[in-house]
Design goal:
Layout (H helix, E strand, L loop, with lengths): L59 H12 L6 E6 L13 H5 L7 E2 L4 E3 L1 H4 L16 E8 L2 E9 L7 E5 L23 E2 L6 E2 L1 E14 L2 E2 L14 E3 H6 L10 E2 L5 E2 L17 E6 L8 H10 L6 H5 L8 E6 L5 H7 L3 H8 L8 E6 L8 H5 L5 E3 L5 E3 L9 H5 L6 E2 L17 H4 L14 E2 L5 H13 L12 H5 L5 E5 L6 H6 L4 E2 L11 E4 L1 E3 L7
Parallel strand pairs: 1-6, 3-5, 11-24, 14-23
Antiparallel strand pairs: 1-9, 2-10, 3-6, 4-5, 4-9, 7-8, 12-13, 14-21, 15-16, 17-18, 19-20, 22-23
Length: 543
Amino acid sequence: MHDGVYPAVTAGAAPVVEAAEEPATAPEHKEGDAHATPHGRPQAPVAVAAPVAAAISADPATISTAAANLNKVKGGAFELVIYEKTGLGDGRLANNPWLQELPDPISRVTWDNYITMSIADMNSDDFKFNILNGQEQLSNVAEVVVNGVTLKLPVYASPGQAKGTIGIALGYGRTKAGKTANGIGANAFPAVTINKDNGFFEYSAVDVKVNKTSETYNLAGTQTFHTMMGRAIVKETTLDAYKKDAKAGNEPVLLSLSNGTKDTPNNVNLWEDHPRLNHKWGMSIDLNTCLGCGACVIGCHSENNVAVVGKDEVRRGRDMHWLRIDRYYTSDMTEKKAEEEGVGAIDKFLDMEVPSDSPRVVFQPVMCQHCNHAPCETVCPVLATTHSNEGLNQMTYNRCIGTKYCGNNCPYKVRRFNWFKYADNSAFDFHMNDTLGKMVLNPDVIVRGRGVMEKCSMCVQRIQEGKLNAKKEGRRPIDGEIKTACQQVCPTNAITFGDLNDDTHTVTKHSKEPRMYHLLEEVGIQPSVFYMTKVRNVSASEL
């Protein structure tokens, strides 16, 4: 059996088998085994999501065969889909700790593969599985029997998944990949079959048996809530409404004043404004094009020497990602519906956190917003976080004493605290503490030490390089010349960075569009990062 990755094969050819390896088996999942091993590595780890498309033939004989197979499915059996996650893929790069710690775009789980199942099936009398996935809640473990192979994995509730279906990701359960990947999760490749008629791999199966076990397991996720609970965090509108009014869905935020009038947060200042006479750096994020792939997260990790902390620290809420992608589902409960049906406040918000049976999904990248009235700066007792004259919220690491006041006062929760010295620490043996691994580090960015806060810097090292290159040529930086790491790797160009003092820059044009809005604008901290309202091509009743 293979250790989790098949080499490339031509259509119709059987996969190459490495006889020297033992079959990869699922690790034992018991209560309490979520803690890291002595080397800081989890017993069973992560991934990301993007389904593998099996070859589909329009041949009538093939369709008839598929229909006949469906008719053979017994009551209580499941249909299995084996897929690839966005980051880990088929597992050939499973030994890369960045990919293991990259949260799955949908589940937001790291360092594990698992069985995805519909909430209805998990709540059924046959299972009664736990559908919560928090820091302390344990996931139930189930056995999946398919094609003579038994896989034992924790079960994760996936809103919107079809009843009677389950999913398992490839790329895990490797045995000879390296210190990071070995022993993480279960190997789903043995459940893949080859169609005897056309030689194609079959990444799905029917008549799959799922058996409940008495075991439990801790999954490590970076997001434990599902919906916006009625808040306008992601602003949306319909295409028809947008055509009639470009500001549709982006109603202005107004604050009530003591004199009985209302005004915008920008005009209700608690602090004196300081002009940015030279550069004023800003960023726009188009929610229409962001698909939550996570490439920006990995780009930020590699550019800024962000530490990998392992499953146990992620489970404790100590992940070090400078940039996160929030995933939200829609809910059937709304403010309007609660008012019409007379639902009380507590029940209303409880129902708002329950995703719809067929929810829509939206992704929102969130990093340090580089607020012009930054609340983190006003509470730092040693001025370790200050504002530059170009609009950047900057950190002086050797001044920080680790009070964490700035993290407490940040409404976006994007600051990270170094609980340990992740570099040169054998408990976090990923890539920062050996000679070969350190060759991956960016020499232009310092590696932070224990006891200091860190966060997105807008890739200030790239800004400085771009400014110096432009200065040597006697000009200002041109549009697109300076790119942050997240912008550079974004496959859909959802992120745009530039100088808001330069009208030729795309980001300046975006800042004047009717779709532009600031996240949590009502707080009045005037971020330098702004978002573009998401426009959906649906009817108003569907929004």
